[in-house]
Amino acid sequence: MNLHFNQSLAKNYTSKAQIIRVLSEGWVKENGYCPSCNEQPLNEFTNNRPVADFYCENCHEQYELKSKKAKLSNVVNDGAYKTMIERINSKDNPSFFFLTYSKEYSVNNFLIIPKHFFTPNIIVKRKPLSVTAKRAGWVGCNIDLRQVPESGKVFLVKNQQVIPRENVTQQFQKTLFLRKQSMASRGWTLDVWQCIDRLDVSFSLNQVYAFANELQLKHPENNHVKDKIRQQLQVLRDKGIIEFISRGHYRKLY
Fold it and tell me: What would the pLDDT profile of 205-223 be if each residue is shown by its tens digit?
């Protein structure tokens, strides 16, 4: 995998935004592959398609690319809020590639967050544009990556080091069980999973219970939060994300 952008692709462009779009999309087309099935190359959608940029002809996964210079932020700017919510609630919502690059136009990090880690909670509505703006009233959104468990961030390149493909595909495939859940059930699984991320490798049930108030705020309609915590720990145990050690004690497997 060549980590350098092919700068000749942008020789006919003057807009900085267009240059980055052409260079980053060109790099993914040349070097990227499908983390789900390992197929290469990825195909490009036609321009101006809402949300998605690439798709895999083999398994039909769709991907949207977000590129940024320097470090990846916890909060990523995106497009129209309504469009994003509609797509992540649809059956063909895309997974997201996030690419960071250096001032020398080389890739620092390239990761995917699979679509099953996206719930409406991580899409934050921005304030409407002012009445004096060219698109007055338009409502954009941000993607809050802090709401995604660490296992949902699958690196293909990390700190300029290329990750072996088999590792990428294995990590991607391990979380596919989330796609079989309803949006509500998935939200609970991801919220409890995120709480576990904040604990040591070995942890206790009581430590997870300590997040009960926080989870109650996220799920005000549920009056049995501790029951849901135990239920989700069992789900994560059955899917090989954590393991049961002894009564009330667990260990992470990721």
Answer: 999 999 999 999 999 999 9
> For the purposes of burial, counting CB atoms within 10 Å of the CB of 161, is it exposed (0-12), middle (13-18) or buried (19 or more)?
exposed
Strands 123-125 and 95-101: unpaired
Return the amino acid letter for 20: I
Q: Give the whole-angstrom CA distance, residue 219 versus residue 217.
A: 5
Q: Angle at the Cα of 221 (from 220 to 227), degrees rounded to 5?
A: 90
What tokens does 94 get?
A: 């895309």
What is the rounded CA–CA span in Å between residue 182 and residue 178? 8
Nearest C-alpha neighbor of 34 from the set 68, 2, 62: 62
Give the closest residue to 102 by CA, choosing from 153, 155, 160, 154.
160
Cα separation, 238 vs 241, in Å, equals 8
Residue type, 75: V
Is residue 202 left, alpha or beta, with left meaning phi > 0 and alpha meaning psi from -120 to 50?
A: beta
Global pTM reads 0.90
- Respond yes or no on whether the N-terminal peptide bond of residue 41 is cis (omega within 30° of 0): yes
C-alpha–C-alpha distance, residues 173 and 167, integer Å? 10
Give the C-alpha distances (Å, rounded to integers) separating 86 from 39, 63, 123: 28, 16, 11
Edge-to-edge strands, sheet with 140-144:
75-80, 140-144, 123-125
- Rounded to an integer, the average pLDDT of 161-166 is 97
Measure the CA–CA gap between 190 and 150, rounded to whole angstroms: 11
CB of 89 within 8 A of CB of 52?
no
